[in-house]
Amino acid sequence: MSTFTPLSYTSSDGLALYARDYPATSGDAGMSARLPVICIHGLTRNSADFDELAPELAAMGRRVIAVDVRGRGHSAHDPNPDNYTPAVYAGDIVKLMENLGLSRAIFVGTSMGGLITMTLAARRLDLIAAAIINDIGPVMSVRGLQRIAAYAGRCNAVGSWEEAAAYLRAINACAFPANSDEEWGKWARRAFEQKDDGQLALRYDPNIANAIQTGKLRPTSLAARMAFRRLARRRPTLLVRGALSDLVEREQADWMRKAAPELHYAEVPNVGHAPMLTEPEALEAIRAFLAKLP
């Protein structure tokens, strides 16, 4: 069972936000100065996605902060859906770091979390010591974007945990063909919450999907490509890719590796978008990457 302390903080525009704080669980007193890790989840997910990875990182002697991006999990829904953008999300991370007195951190960004990390690199590179971007980049496959747009923000409430697990299996089985029934049940407990009427609802504001459903989230842009180059050429960066990914296909991964020749790279077999980062291939690459950092 992972142990964390809930953190509550307020965004610059007054929204109540939440994060999980996992203390380092190994290392001597001299390791207390090791850089902390900030984990940022994907579009429709929340901090619970890191409830297995965070203890692994904490066992490496690092404090781990896993956030609920606004509109997800325990963070408040924004009354203005136009604020559901990477720029606003990045501002929330800056506020969190200011509140915690953190001048630098290593970032782990899954999917949308990686876009937030790249946005932060464009605005406040000084806060980023290194980055792990999980199955995301400044160039994305239209195929993957269309698949995500087809389900994000569109699920009605369901009546049981079995139905919740079946829903997640239906939209994610193409990316996780080897998942067991037990794993889908675990995912359901992370992704859904029980309401007062007994129904189960996804733990996010449906409006978070507006940008991808309306086409405002484009497969690439000059700003995104510049942000990636700024990050991956000036800070140690590891790209983790699912071998079955329909969002970062081989073509997009090759583009990133050419744009940033020093980019570290790991591929997770038989997994699509996006690896959980606890797969042996991902965890081995993350351990090796972090071992070289202060």
**How many whole angstroms does the radius of gyration measure?**
18 Å
User: Structural class, from helix and strand content?
Assistant: alpha/beta
Estimate nothing, just give the exact number of structural domains. Answer: 1
Poorly predicted tracts of residues: none
Account of the 3D structure:
There is one protein chain. 36% of the residues lie in helices and 18% in strands. The mean pLDDT is 96. Helix 9 links the parallel strand 9 (237-242) and strand 10. The two termini are 27 Å apart. The protein is an alpha/beta fold and 294 residues long. The chain has a single domain (5-145, 219-291), classed as Rossmann fold, CATH 3.40.50. It has an eight-stranded mixed β-sheet with strand order 1-2-4-3-5-6-9-10, sandwiched between helices. A two-stranded antiparallel ribbon has the order 7-8.
SSE map:
Blueprint: E1 5-10, E2 16-22, E3 37-40, H1 53-58, E4 64-68, H2 86-100, E5 105-110, H3 112-124, E6 128-134, H4 142-151, H5 161-172, H6 181-191, E7 192-194, E8 200-202, H7 210-213, H8 222-234, E9 237-242, H9 250-259, E10 264-268, H10 280-291
Parallel strand pairs: 3-4, 3-5, 5-6, 6-9, 9-10
Antiparallel strand pairs: 1-2, 2-4, 7-8
